[in-house]
Amino acid sequence: MASAPAANGDSSVADYDLMLKLAQNLDRHMIFPLLEFNAGQLVDEESGEIKDEAKAREITQAKYSLLKKTDMTDYVANLYCELEGLEEPPAEFADKKQKVFGQLQKYEQDTSKIIELLERDDVVNNLRSDKVANLEFLKREHEVTIDMVNALYDLGNLQYSCGNYADASETLYRFRVLSTDNDKVAYATWGRLACEILTMNWESAMEEIQKVRETIDSKLSQNPLAQLQHRTALAHWALFPLFNFEKAREPILELFFNAGYINTIQANCAWVLRYLAVAVITNRGRAKNPGIHQKQMKDVVRIVKQEAYEYQDPITRFVHALSIDFDFEEAQRQLVLAEEVLRRDFFLLAHADDFVDSARHLIFESYCKIHARISLQDLSARLGLNADAAEKWIVNLIRDTRLDAKIDYKEGTVVMNHPPSSVYQQVIEKTKGGFFRTQVLSAAVAK
Amino acid sequence: MSRFFRGGDDSSSESSSDEEELYTSSEEEEEEDQEQQESSEEEDEDEEESSDEDEGPKKTGLSRFLVDQDSSESEQSDEEGATKVKSAKDKRFDELEATITTIQNRQKIDDWGSIANEFDKLNRQVVKLQDGGKAPKSYIKCIAELEDFLNETLAKQKVTPKNKKLNATNARGLNAVKQRIKKNNKDYQTQIDAFRKDSDAFMESDEDEAPAPQPSRVRFQEVVAPEEPVEDEDGGFARVDRRGKAVPYSSEGILKHLRAIVESRGRKNTDRAEQIKIMEELNKVAETPYLKIRVLQTLVSARFDLGSGTTSSMPLEHWKAAEKELAALLTILETNKDHVVVEGAEEWDDDEKTPVLGPDDKYIKVPGSIVSYIERLDDELTRSLQSIDPHTSEYIERLTDEASLYNIILQGLLYYETIRKDASLEIPQESVNRIIQRRLDHVYFKPSQVVKILEENAWKQISSAADSVITPRSQTGDAGQLIYVLCNYLFDNSEGIIRARAMLCQIYFLALHDDYYKARDMMLTSHLQESIANFDVATQILYNRTLVQVGLCAFRKGLVYDAQNTLQDICGSGRQKELLAQGVMIQRFNQVSPEQERLEKQRQLPFHMHINLELLECVYLTCSMLLEIPLLAQIGSSPDIKKRVISKTYRRMLEYHERQIFTGPPENTRDHVMQASKALAAGEWKKATNFIHSIKIWDLMPSADEIKAMLAKQIQEEGLRTYLFTYAPFYDTLAIETLSTMFELDSVKVAAVVSKMISHEELAAALDQVTNTVIFRKGVELSRLQSLALALSDKASALIETNERTLEVRTQGSANAFSRKDGRQGGQRGGGQRGGRGGARTGGNAQRQAGGTQFTGGALGAAVRG
Predict the structure, then answer these.
(1) Which of B35, B405, B838, B853 is a good FRET partner for A439, with 20 to 30 A between their CA atoms?
(2) Strands B765-768 and A371-375: what pairing?
(3) How far apart are CA B188 and CA B127, in angstroms?
(4) What is the value of ipTM here, to two decimals?
(5) Which residue has the higher pLDDT, B513 or A87?
(6) Which among A409, A89, A293, A242 is positioned nearest to B830, based on CA atoms?
(7) How far apart are CA A132 and CA A46, in angstroms?
(8) Which residues are paired to A413 by β-bridges?
């Protein structure tokens, strides 16, 4: 199915490429996988040949200029050779490599003592949660100076720049334990987050995201502009775990729907809405709590509507058509386009099938909600399936969602039954939590 | 001072005069010293003052009187001896010295009361003696020492216990000196610092300079005679006048004339017209740029004085003349780059000669403030526009002057840009901000074509060499760009009110040019609605104007809901006139004081800036109709839905209209909308459209046809909704086809509207895809008890919600108890507490909610109450 529109929809789909917008908010090192992905897209799946030479070269060029400023000298040198068609990299790269090595060694020397100390049990056992006291203790017992601690920071920085993410993460962690310099600790936290993302260590990446979030909320509350910028960056960085780590989904969605972040997305980076929409839609079956999911879906619809004047792509248009205009045909059209966009997106590639499936569910759900009788034929066309598959699909759906619907085979229709929600049930729902809440309230007052 | 003497209790004043007496008698013994004599002369004057103040002879007064005579006699004889050799300037010097000595002596005996007096006098004297901003050295020494002494005394006072406090007179004197000396010494800070650093060297340099006055003494002696008549102003005037006819004014005497005129400014019985005539003559004879600048400055100020009454505006011919003269002044300044008019420059005291460019000076500085002149000119134009009937041709004629005013503003801006380039002049940022603000005020409310013409004409007047850095000549064509640049400049370089105003002007302009989303986003991100109540009334009015403009813009875009929401605060109040400063409301109940009325009148905007109130009302009512009629129909079919009112004003009008027994054909806008509403409620959408379309005022909108088409479309849709709400109970099924023909809508559109209603649970129905019909569900109407039970449960949960919120506010910071409960309860209710609360705020009227995008009219009420 994807191949059919790909031929003619090629140019239009390319318009929805967010690479440039994303790149502004990501770290150099994180852009790299995106570029790799773009390069990979150009390789024909079957033959392994590169389809578009000029484009491939462009990407290599981009990679080169991207990494030029980092300290990954060997790789940069290779890229340079590839670009210029040289066999041997020029001497300047060797120089630079030497220099980086020298620096690395210097920092390692500077920090060797402190690292050694931190590996000794008797020292670590004496550390407490109070950073100032810790530093005081180390200074007294082991002659650790603040300069040594700061050297840790520099070392971490350099390691990261060299692409040695795992070590960098460890070093920054140590730095953070000891340092009392709030700014540097905040930078170190960002640095660690980057390391964890790049080493795909999602569990600890989530911890770091939480830490960064706290810092933004507390430290920057006096500076709305910085807060906005940091939140924008965090929203982008969080995309990595969001689409790569199953457990990260709920906390990150919760993060995105937090008032501060949703406002940031609306104000500064509306394109994140695409990811948000996809995440929420694909989260349909997975959410532990259908209530939250419904709420999030509603929020997405609302925001898509509000931002329609500013940002539109097939995904948001799909949401718009389905939930605001109730134009099912348009939704269907956009869904086809959206799938194509998804397959070209670094983050969403793996979720394309999932998205299409969930989107179909959504269409059907709201279709059923509104209609009392649907012709099977029409529905199958709408879902993009043949009659038999559609029937099967519907049967499965009815079973899964416990939808109150029956298939009238003779007529070729699905008949929906919409029982009006009982007024007694409504009253019960509304008053259910009342007693408990009041109790808690009175307990809180009594305190 | 005299008041405090009289007010103070007698004993203290007596004691102080006793002290003085003591002092003078001791003075008598050392009469030889000339300076001392001078000081006793000062003393005399003092004594005389205080004896006047004492009112009524007393014992001490009498003895003092004797002393007075003695000393004054001796002083007189001395004077006679001295007159021949001393020039006026030297005499002043001596007086100064004398005062200083007195102060020093008083310091010894801690007599602060008289130190305060002497200090005032000293300052008066020193003003006359300043040459080139440098005060005499002895003066500097004196004030420096006095300050030290003051600090010492203050320190001592802190230490000493209360019983040893100074008496009342002294204490007051001390305070007076303390306050004044701080202010005063700031002006001479550098000199004082030099003195403190090395007092001897400082005073020595004094001696070096001492001979300096001597050569001038000769010159001054000659000068003394002609100077005499100038002191007597009236005499001086008469003579000038008499001679004016016979002998033409000479450029040499210009400065003298100017001084005389400036000094008589603000006094009673000065003939301003006469003075202006004199200055016009002077302007003709002025030759050097310096003289011209001086004459023009004084002339323009004098013209402004003519309109200085609170209500009356400046006469037209004088305004025009002032405008011409300001233009001339700016041209002179432009051509003579070495002359600058800056605030805070020193006055040039020498009436005899004009200043020349010194070797190390870059500029000849003339004191004055161009921006103030321009502001005043602008204000005067506004004032006269306020007082002219806007429907006369006079108003239009007057309005043409705005173009020339705009030229001046632009020229002024260019001037400030040039002089700001030189950092040594230290032109404050504020002047530029003020002038840009003025420029912005003249363009923000105009359509871009008009701004373009205005700009082009203004630039034509300016020599082609000049260009602006902030708003380059090349960009004149683009009004939007101009506004953007001006506002951004103010945004970067100013704060507080000017910044807020710049923001509002930009939003206004954007809204005027149909850039709704940008305007709305700026309005929302500015967060002005929270702080607008703290701004001054003029800014609040601007805020209201902007709000209304944004609303109108939303309407033009077809965003009925947003338009109604935005306009609600201004139009719903029924006080549009006041809130927009476009007319004074007649207050029926509370009497307005004349003072308030005058202020109110001053605030009024000139007519050409007005937003058409009738159009505004029309838009507001139409929007309200489109929202209210379906809502009324919805409520009507299920009577127990919580009564929601969108616009009270509209409801009231509708009720009034319905009460009427006989309704004639519609006459005004309101009638049209009301009758359209009635038709719409009955499902006759065509009639409604006709009524709305026959409102004439739409023609005032740009692209009126589009708006009519938009309205027709909206009426069709809302008509369909209303029809469904109203007639749903009477149908089992309804074919979409029928609806589609009935409302002349596309059947897809009908299906979409119905789907939306079903999905939002406004309509108990479902679509049948096979037969293309709407099937209405039965038995959804609730019994009275059921609906009451629902209402009760709603209210109960609302109560809990409120309680929780109250507690949250109360326990902010230590909200542990609450947050724990938050988490637990979140699980229990099956929906996150945070989400639930967020939903509660917006979910109340979720169907047509546009999210958090409404404004609240923070400036209401307060704007009027002032």
Answers:
(1) B838
(2) parallel
(3) 12
(4) 0.73
(5) B513
(6) A293
(7) 61
(8) A375, A408
Which residues of chain B are within 8 Å of residue A441 when distances are taken between CB atoms?
800, 803-804, 807, 821
From B521, B800, B817, residue closest to A438, measured CB to CB: B800
Q: How far is CA B355 from CA B215, B254, B599, B656, in A?
A: 19, 13, 45, 77
Phi, psi values for residue B773, rounded to 5°? -130, 165
Strand segments (E) across B92-228: none
Q: What is the pLDDT of residues B451-496, one digit of tens each?
A: 888 888 888 877 777 777 777 777 767 888 888 888 888 888 877 8
The 10s digit of each residue's pLDDT in B638-691 is: 555 556 778 888 888 888 888 888 878 888 888 899 999 989 888 888 999 999
What is the pairing mode between strands A413-416 and A405-408? antiparallel
Per-residue pLDDT, B393? 86
A434 touches chain B (CB under 8 A): yes
Q: Assign A157 to helix, strand or coil.
A: helix
SS3 content of chain A, % helix, strand, coil (to 5): 75, 5, 20
Residue A13 host element (H or E): helix A10-14
- The answer to whether B831 faces chain A, any CB pair under 8 Å, is yes
Contact A327 B748 (CB under 8 A): yes
Chain A residues with CB-CB distance to B769 below 8 A:
371, 373-375, 378, 413
Distance of alpha carbon B413 from alpha carbon B431, whole angstroms:
9
B299 within 8 A of B348, measured Cβ to Cβ: no
A419 at B interface, C-beta within 8 A: no
The 3-class SS string of B12-62 reads HHHHHHHHHHHHHHHHHHCCCCHHHHHHHHHHHHHHHHHHHHHCCCCHHHH
Q: Are the C-beta atoms of residues B711 and B686 closer than 8 Å to each other?
A: no
Amino acid letter for position B863: A
The Cα–Cα gap between B374 and A403 comes to 76
Pull the structure tokens for residue B100.
Answer: 């200083």
- B813 versus B682: the higher-pLDDT residue is B682
